[in-house]
Every structure is written in structure tokens, then in C-alpha cells.
Design brief:
Elements lengths: L2 E5 L14 H11 L4 E6 L4 H7 L7 E5 L4 E3 L4 E4 L4 H13 L4 E4 L4 E3 L13 E3 L12 E4 L6 H8 L3 E5 L5 E5 L4 H8 L5 E6 L5 H6 L2 E5 L12 E4 L3 H15 L2 H10 L1
Parallel strand pairs: 1-2, 1-12, 2-3, 7-8, 12-13, 13-14
Antiparallel strand pairs: 3-4, 4-5, 6-7, 6-9, 9-11, 10-11
Length: 264
């Protein structure tokens, strides 16, 4: 029996839109290089960001990107769940009628409704739509700048065809029905391994609930305070490092614990 560590990015191990700091990267690097330990980055962001931020670790990581709409290792894509093109067309029309900024994520690139839509997604691989008609096939995720306030309406619009994930940052994502981080991690999580999950937002809820040990970062998801397997820590790199090291040391197979304790 081994250990699988699955962690969200933004607001969990990375803050203010920046890559994780060196102390967090050092702990993840140590874990990823151990025998019987797997590390997965489970994020709403694209696989491009994971590759860029974790370049030295890339070959050792699993990737659950776009809220689980894309699941991959360094060697192969395991799952790709695209939105129905008919639904994509309807949502684009609805958003444009309300002058809502949005981005369509394809995995290798993304198309933005206008040049400054969701600026945190960056400029690399960005295509600006303007009045052009977007490609409707291959969309893994629709990100909406002010989507959180529209989340109830969006849920009614998509019905059983898609999932809507509002974020504490005010934006929201739409992915295909049945897609979430917990489903994606299960594709990479061998039966019998113990799961340590870290997250902070609504799209992390399923993953944290199904973990053997969950670490919630910050003040969101108050319902998890009733779960005995979940610990809450502040939104601070030092607190995250300490909680991650302690939980990993407790969950590692017996033959690895001595090595883990030496790094705490």
C-alpha cells in the first residue's frame, strides 16, 4: 500500500496567481521522488500551467486539469471530457447577450471573448475571439469572469449536460457532467493506496470528502469541519508545508516513515 498526494493549486499551494513557493515545491519534490508515493496536481488550470510551474517534476506528476476534464501523466492522456458543441454554442450566445467575459479552454490553447478577459489566464496560447466564431468542438471548460454570481442561472441553463463550479475569486467554470477532480484522481489512484488531498474551493469538495486525509486551506467549505478526517490550516505557505509534511509522514508506508520524519 502506497500514498497518493493530490493537491489543488490556486489558494491551496499557490497564492496570488503565482507558482508555489520554494518551500512547498521542495516538499512535493521530496514526496514525488519517493518509492510508493504518487503526486497529482488537481487544478482548474490547464495542463500548460502545470507543465510550466512544475517543469523539473513534470515526469513524476499526474495531472487532473480543467477540474478533471483532462487527466494525464507525462506519457499519455488518460481521459478527455469535452463539452457538447451545441451546449457551447448556446452558452456563448447567452454570455455575449449579457456582455460577460469568458474563455474557452481547449487544453493546448484557449480562446478569450476579448483581449483582457480573465487576465489571470495569461497571454501565452491566448486567442482573442472578437466577432469571430469560435471552434465549438474540443472545449474542455468554459471560464466566466463574473460567473459566480450567475452560477444558479447557469446551472439551470446547462441542466444535466454540465457541471458549474463557482470560485471564491468570483469566476466560475463549466465542464461536462460527471467531471470533477475526485473522478480524475481515481483514474490515477491505484486501488489500495491511501489518498491525501489538499484543496480550498468548491471544486475540491468531492476530492476532500473521498480522501483518507483532507487538508482544507483557508476558510471556505465550512461543512468539512464536521468530517473527522479533515484538518483546516491558514492560507499560508509555512502552514501548508507543516500540515503536508505531518500528514504525509503519518500516511506513508512503514518502510518510508523514517525517511519522511527526517525531512520534517
Amino acid at each position: 500500500m502506497g500514498l497518493h498526494v493530490a493537491t489543488d493549486l490556486d489558494g491551496t499551494i499557490s497564492f496570488r496567481g503565482r507558482r508555489p513557493d520554494d518551500t512547498i515545491l521542495a516538499v512535493l519534490t521530496d514526496l514525488a521522488h519517493r518509492d510508493d508515493v504518487a503526486v497529482t496536481i488537481a487544478t482548474a488550470r490547464s495542463p500548460r500551467v502545470v507543465t510550466e510551474w512544475f517543469a523539473p517534476l513534470s515526469e513524476h506528476l499526474g495531472r487532473v486539469c480543467c477540474n478533471g476534464a483532462m487527466v494525464a501523466t507525462d506519457r499519455a492522456t488518460i481521459m478527455r471530457s469535452e463539452l457538447d458543441p451545441v451546449l457551447v454554442r448556446m452558452l456563448i450566445g447567452w454570455l455575449r447577450e449579457r456582455d460577460q467575459g469568458f474563455c474557452l479552454e481547449y487544453g493546448d490553447r484557449f480562446a478569450a471573448s476579448h483581449p483582457d478577459a480573465l487576465p489571470w489566464m495569461g497571454t501565452e496560447k491566448r486567442i482573442t475571439l472578437g466577432e469571430a466564431s469560435p471552434m465549438l468542438d474540443g472545449v474542455l471548460k468554459i471560464s466566466i469572469a463574473a460567473g459566480a454570481i450567475w452560477s444558479d442561472m447557469l446551472a439551470l441553463l446547462v441542466g444535466a449536460a454540465a457541471e458549474v463550479y463557482p470560485h471564491v475569486t468570483g469566476d466560475a467554470d463549466i465542464v461536462a457532467r460527471g467531471v470533477d477532480k475526485a473522478v480524475g484522481v481515481r483514474r490515477l489512484h491505484p486501488s489500495g493506496d491511501r489518498l491525501l488531498a489538499l484543496g480550498n474551493d468548491r471544486n475540491d469538495l468531492g476530492l476532500l470528502l473521498t480522501a483518507d486525509v483532507g487538508i482544507v486551506i483557508g476558510e471556505q467549505l465550512p461543512e468539512l469541519d464536521l468530517c473527522s478526517h479533515v484538518r483546516r490550516v491558514p492560507s499560508d505557505s509555512a502552514a501548508v508545508v507543516a500540515a503536508l509534511q505531518l500528514a504525509a509522514a503519518r500516511l506513508l508506508p512503514e518502510r518510508l516513515r523514517a525517511s519522511a520524519r527526517s525531512s520534517v
